[in-house]
Predict the structure of Aspartate aminotransferase family protein.
Amino acid sequence: MPTPPLAGGTAGPTHLRPLLDTVLTALHDGATRRNGPLPAGGPDTVTHHTRTTTGPVLPDHGTGPHHALRTLVTALTEGAADPAHPHCAAHLHTPPLALAAAADLAASALNPSMDSWDQAPAASALEADLTRTLATEIYPHTPHPDAVITTGGTEANQLALLLARERHGPLQTICAANAHHSITRATWLLGLPRPVVIPAPRGVMDPTALHDALTTLTGPLLVTATAGTTDTGRIDPLDHIADLTTTHGADLHIDAAYGGPLLLSPTHRHLLTGLHRAHTVTLDLHKLGWQPASAGILAVPDHHHLTPLHHHAPYLNADDDTEAGLPDLLGRSLRTTRRPDALKIAVTLQALGRDGLADLIDRTLTTAHHLADLIDQHPHLQLYARPTISTVLFRPTGTDDTHVATIRRTLLDQGHAVLGRAHADGRLWLKATLLNPHTTPEDHHRLLTLVTHTATRTRTTPAPAPRPAAPPAPRTPAPHTTTEGSNPR
Amino acid sequence: MPTPPLAGGTAGPTHLRPLLDTVLTALHDGATRRNGPLPAGGPDTVTHHTRTTTGPVLPDHGTGPHHALRTLVTALTEGAADPAHPHCAAHLHTPPLALAAAADLAASALNPSMDSWDQAPAASALEADLTRTLATEIYPHTPHPDAVITTGGTEANQLALLLARERHGPLQTICAANAHHSITRATWLLGLPRPVVIPAPRGVMDPTALHDALTTLTGPLLVTATAGTTDTGRIDPLDHIADLTTTHGADLHIDAAYGGPLLLSPTHRHLLTGLHRAHTVTLDLHKLGWQPASAGILAVPDHHHLTPLHHHAPYLNADDDTEAGLPDLLGRSLRTTRRPDALKIAVTLQALGRDGLADLIDRTLTTAHHLADLIDQHPHLQLYARPTISTVLFRPTGTDDTHVATIRRTLLDQGHAVLGRAHADGRLWLKATLLNPHTTPEDHHRLLTLVTHTATRTRTTPAPAPRPAAPPAPRTPAPHTTTEGSNPR
């Protein structure tokens, strides 16, 4: 076999083109074979099928680039839970925009590494522009806001707690029961005390309980609030919480991984009032920003707040190089080698602009309200609450939590829908996290029909006779999948 | 503007194709404009040029997908330090294979997230196959080796220290002066004592000093050894170190981020004798594996050793879902959302096979020996030592460290070459880290001519008259860039 060609250089595009043709064909063929939001059969079946169709990962003799790409990309696509399908709506798992995925190819081909200027001359300039731009959206009133790019909300939350630890020593974190699991995991990682967890009735932090905790606890404190919870999509009363932390001299971190992009919508940004009062803010653009993973951000009101991340490695940022003007990038992350996630984000922001992004955000939130309307009007479905962002919790009436969990797993096993689950008000709910701006009212109708039909078929205890509902068509051809190939609308 | 199309679904490839055409054109045009390994002018010039050509990151009205892709990808490419250019050889900054970059597009388009099965049905199966395959290469003698995928060696080293902390509590780390900076940074992150640093004469850990440290220190100990150091590419005496840690009851971690892939070369795998005796092994396939960042691995001899990473988040791995057979992925990383880096790695391994990978590795190590030969034979260059892997340290004769640093920065500023720097034996050396298997003897000749010519031009103190050397041609057209577009050869 000749030495395989590289992606870079002036010849790279020529070598990439036929390989990309193979990838695009495999993406299409795999999606056609799947013919739905995820493969049917459940984990054992899917794993077996994936393994038998892909063959050994490391054969003695290679199968060649086109064969390997065709085989593995087709298998991955056929076996994907594809967030571009309107019935794949379990998690904060976004369908990426085509333009963001295309931009990401350039990151892979050029492979700038963001740990030193001489690996990323233009990429580091672009990243600096992007992080300053995003930080200014969050902190419009401070002269030198800044941000670092992370692998996601989890790493951003870790960094927020790390910065607080470096400001104060081993401080006590306070979060509510609605906080992301990464807060507790970060305290474990960083050797900090476990968080004090205060109640979150109806899914938001209870300010009275926070006041009590701030009054009772001693020593340096960090409150972490959430703007867009994982379970219900609710936003804590940020401004009220900021009043309390200011009064009590506690630090405030806001995990706005989900809700943060609402800042870009004139219609919805009022939901984030008080965000700029936090010492640190987490933001994920691989949620309401339609980026391929990963595209996390941690923002701070002043670039000096990032000083604890500064780090010295003579081969990357020797003193005399830094003095001679070579930018020192190592303090922009705890990682060393680092992919230029700034590129796809910058391409998306520039291509869509403020108005285009606001339109995408507003459109997505509208789909969530529409789904909530349909559930509210449905005789056999119960809505948990009107959505704050784009998360809709619901459950069939007259059933129990075990059955709700069974409905979810049945939809997964049959390849009909990917719905999430959440506990709220002491009960288990089905969760639809809507991030696909192309979803239509017809998609919602079909989804709810799938749920009510599955509820009926899996019911083991007597229940009120359900209203007749159109059964979902068999897997092939399946009417609920006819919309899959139709984006954009 | 219509709602921008998504990358997924059956229609995704149709929407991606014209956008990818724009990206490929921009990659080509940017590389042609750069016309060398990196842009000339140094940081201020490159940053200014990048900013003025790209325009605002977040305009009020979007510029549209093709315009944004063309503008930003061209700027990123024109301003790249492109590791596909044979004179871009400073760091462990690999030129990605075209087939790996093409596979990575599918990861971006499908966006499986590796934190729950219902976001990554086939991707999680593929990742499990890949991690088991790689772990078995490292630990061929244990029944259940396993590995997790990381963002790179830095995260893998952090995890190794975290696992050791969870086994033993706040243990003492011992590393040599040649260890990667991430070891010390990980102890800081994890709240562990700073490492005890023992000498590394000639770039490798001194076993006598290790013996003394193991004899002197009390309490649980973790020794971290290195297989492929950043400065000289040397490999610590792994088997000897494993003997010492076994005798003294200390744990052993081996950072084989750079050297690990030598396992796949029958010619060179003997360099890693003893690797399998470590409790944890770090491996980066974005170094000697030609992957776009990132592609890190942490391997363990038994999958139970990863248990401390297990973590519970009811929305991702509820007990009844796990009991019902839904795989629990959350314990495979400290991250939550996680890109499927397994895909590009698996495509590369399957396409090339063992023999293809061995050929790439052997070819790359041969280029390093060839460069070392040329330096050894050169009257005005001094070679530090024969390369162990593919790192070659050298310096002009009769000069001082300040001048060596100036030569490196001058080559960078002029856009002629990206060379690294390393301190060894009390002096500063130029460092060529060779990872490009397409590099030819002619490329090496031109590189050394550039260095000697730059040394002459920047010399401020009298020195022996240099042998006449052909001056590098002016930046455009530049003879040293004629090879850029010629891969594969």
Q: What stands out?
A: The first helix of chain B runs from residue 12 to 34.
